[in-house]
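Q: Hi! First time doing this. I have a protein sequence and I read that you can turn it into a structure. Is that right? Here it is:
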Amino acid sequence: VAYNGSQTYTPMTNITMSHNTVIAAWGGKGIGVYGGSGHHVTDNYIADTARYIGLGVGRFGVNGSDMTGATVSGNVIVRSGGNAYAQGQPALHIGNGGDGQNTGIVSNAVVTGNSVIQSVYDGVAFSTSTSTTLSGNTITNPWRNGIVISPPYYPAPSGNTTITDNTVTGLGAGESA
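A: Yes, that's right. Below is the predicted 3D structure, encoded as structure tokens:
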């Protein structure tokens, strides 16, 4: 078998991650949804991620699968986000990866009823995604901004998102909800 430098993966479907506790993840995200569809990430507790995003919803790298549907609800994300590669990564990220590779599709993510508490950098961040819903989430005491579209080091956003009924409290001076 000749290896031509590329690899493809079969997208996973209908994965459920619920009622998990993730504390002090070091080498990766607390929880990551990397491609596929029909996923449910519900009622998890993620705290103290050291280097990366607390909860990521999107696609991983250039060879990963498109992410075409996920429901993310009822999760609690505490003191998460990290400074890997000096990027100041958010606690919750939706969209193509922070590895600077803007390839593939991230669509139909429904992110509702989550709590992001004392994020290390920004609470929630968006990069390229489409048909995304961010609704009814609570962001409390972020170190920087509450909700960021086009965070530094991430692909510029494109697509459409509906952002409604989210609450951001405890902002520092000069930071944006």
